[in-house]
Write a structure and sequence with these properties.
393 residues, mainly alpha, 17 helices, binds s-citryldethia Coenzyme A, acyltransferase
């Protein structure tokens, strides 16, 4: 065992960054986008208006909103060559793998909006990413199930367009249900931004090197995929289905408390929220509404989720550790009821979070104080030593 090098840090860690975009109070369970509480935005606004707010800092007037929505709508198609790009993947590739690849490749197709020093190109890249991510996510889904790609339709709103691209087939047009589109739109809003979470920090770090915006967003998608982060919505639903019935909940609660067992309750706990995640509350109400709308009553998974939440919130371990349901606990139930496979849950999180990543990236790029991110380390390796040739070892 080499001597551990004694280390005197002699430095203080610096705050990650200043940001005016999203505020979280983990103890009070508050989340604001540019000062507006998430509950009010989820209830009274819609996703493209929230995109405008996150990007430009203020709510738009009618004309500004129409102009922004037109610009996004008219960028929803992807370069036709990208269809061939998709066809290089195996059919059974996880849609997140496809999205990381395709979004990263966007800088090969849209090189006229990669110059980060050009304000207009930064703006075009932002619009293209917000507009095309739903198309790319839908194409990843269609490709994975062997169905033909469905082109975006400019006469549909953002959420309806996404649902149509996912569920329409040549033989049968998808019937857009406005109430379902509103629920989809609300899910986009709830996931739009969340301060300096792992994937947003990844985008900022990648952006601090001067990488183009498409490469930075691809890095964010890759980080979001992890089951401890955005991948938790897929893992949470799979866990709820594995539990299956209410009588098996105690077995899983015991496992979550057992330090020797790596199992964690997916959809529970948060790095910041030590109170309810306000998004989980809205999502829980939405789950009831969507299942009612779809005529799905007594959904066993929702029953297990509600009972699991009830038991966990009364359990001393979870109370002491301040573990509450997070945004991922209920979202999978809604998405599953809408007809999405679990493999599409994180891609939907990614397309929703793209506006947050872009807003945070633009904020960082526009800050003259920005230097290349380079987190400090505490060296705990061996002291300096001389090489020993193999014949002498
Ligand atoms: C997202 O950062 C963001 O904002 C992310 C996100 C966003 O919008 O971008 O909000 C989205 O990623 C939400 C989180 C989704 N992940 C999950 O649901 C996976 C399950 N959750 C855990 O992996 C966990 O809660 C984390 C990773 C989210 C947070 O882990 P931490 O930092 O360890 O949480 P903590 O410090 O509050 O944990 C306190 C204790 C620890 O035990 P001790 O070391 O004190 O003994 O509680 C334990 C943890 O081990 N714990 C859990 C648990 N989560 C934490 N025990 C059982 N089940 C859990 N889910």
């Amino acid at each position: 065992q080499a001597d551990v090098f004694t280390f005197d840090p002699g430095f203080t860690s610096t705050a990650a960054c200043e940001s005016a975009i999203t505020f979280i109070d983990g103890d009070k369970g508050e989340l604001w986008y540019r000062g507006y509480p998430i509950e009010q935005l989820a209830d009274q606004s819609h996703f493209l208006e929230v995109c405008y707010l996150l990007l430009y800092g203020e709510l738009p007037d009618k004309a500004m909103l129409e102009d922004f929505e037109n610009r996004v709508t008219r960028h929803t198609m992807v370069h036709e060559q990208m269809h061939n790009f998709f066809r290089g993947f195996r059919r059974d590739a996880h849609p997140m793998a496809t999205m990381v690849g395709v979004v990263g490749a966007m800088s090969a197709f849209y090189h006229d909006s990669t110059d980060i020093n050009d304000e207009w190109q930064r703006e075009v890249a932002a619009i293209r990413l917000i507009a095309k991510l739903p198309t790319i996510a839908a194409m990843a889904y269609k490709y994975s199930i062997g169905q033909p790609f469905v082109y975006p339709q400019n006469d549909l709103d953002y959420a309806s367009n996404f649902l149509n691209m996912c569920f329409s087939v040549p033989a049968e047009k998808y019937k857009v249900d406005p109430a379902l589109s509103k629920a989809m739109d609300r899910i986009f809003t709830l996931h739009a931004d969340h301060e300096q979470n792992a994937s947003t920090s990844t985008v900022r770090l990648a952006g601090s090197s001067g990488a183009n915006p498409f490469a930075c967003i691809a890095a964010g998608i890759a980080c979001l995929w992890g089951p401890a982060h955005g991948g938790a919505n897929q893992a949470a639903l799979e866990m709820l289905k594995e539990i299956g019935t209410v009588d098996r909940i105690p077995e899983y609660i015991a496992r979550a408390k057992d330090k020797s067992d790596p199992f964690k309750l997916m959809g529970f706990g948060h790095r910041v929220y030590k109170n309810f995640d306000p998004r989980a509350k809205v999502m829980k109400e939405s789950a009831d509404e969507v299942l009612d709308l779809l005529g799905i009553h007594n959904n066993p998974t929702l029953q297990v989720a509600k009972e699991l939440e009830k038991i966990a919130l009364e359990d001393d371990y979870f109370i002491e550790k301040k573990l509450y349901p997070n945004v991922d606990f209920y979202s999978g139930i809604i998405l599953s009821a809408m007809g999405f496979p679990t493999s599409m849950f994180t891609p939907i999180f990614a397309l929703s979070r793209t506006v947050g990543w872009i807003a945070q990236w633009k904020e960082m790029i526009g800050d003259p104080q920005t230097k290349i991110g380079r987190p400090r380390q505490l060296y705990v390796g061996p002291k300096r030593r001389d090489y020993v040739p193999v014949k002498s070892r």
